[in-house]
Recover the amino acids of this structure.
């Protein structure tokens, strides 16, 4: 089993820092279940990743794109161009709430804070709650 060194890989990836980043990303991908492209020979994942880079069984451009994609928080989505999709005529589409004809919108009930409080007050019981717990039967059961 031959040892892989940085010198074996540095001619494939010129920047040593980028080499470390790519090898670490590839080793994590192997740990996550990615297929190994070389004979494993009981090596650990970082060594396998470096050997793959040295033997060029995995394209460094693909690894670079995968690493960049994994680090991105907001991924850009390619929007279709205006001419690519047919425009829907306005008479064929259904009205949307708040955006089209306001006569077709459903009116939603709106309560003010005062109306809500009055409604809650009308739901309170009229009997005092102090009578709870004064039952002699309850005292004897304790």
């Amino acid at each position: 089993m031959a040892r892989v060194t940085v010198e074996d890989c540095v001619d494939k990836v010129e920047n040593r820092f980028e080499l470390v980043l790519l090898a670490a990303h590839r080793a994590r991908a192997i740990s996550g279940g990615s297929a190994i492209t070389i004979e494993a020979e009981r090596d650990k994942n970082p060594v396998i990743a470096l050997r793959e880079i040295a033997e060029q069984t995995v394209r460094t451009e693909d690894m670079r794109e995968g690493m960049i994609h994994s680090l991105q928080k907001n991924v850009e989505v390619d929007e279709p161009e205006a001419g690519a999709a047919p425009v829907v005529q306005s008479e064929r589409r259904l009205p949307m709430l708040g955006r089209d004809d306001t006569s077709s919108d459903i009116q939603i009930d709106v309560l003010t804070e005062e109306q809500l409080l009055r409604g809650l007050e009308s739901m309170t019981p009229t009997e005092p709650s102090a009578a709870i717990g004064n039952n002699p039967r309850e005292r004897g059961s304790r």
In short: The domain at 6-71 is CATH 3.90.940.10 (Eukaryotic RPB6 RNA polymerase subunit). The radius of gyration is 35 Å. The chain has a mean pLDDT of 77. Residues 90 and 100 are 10 Å apart (CA to CA).
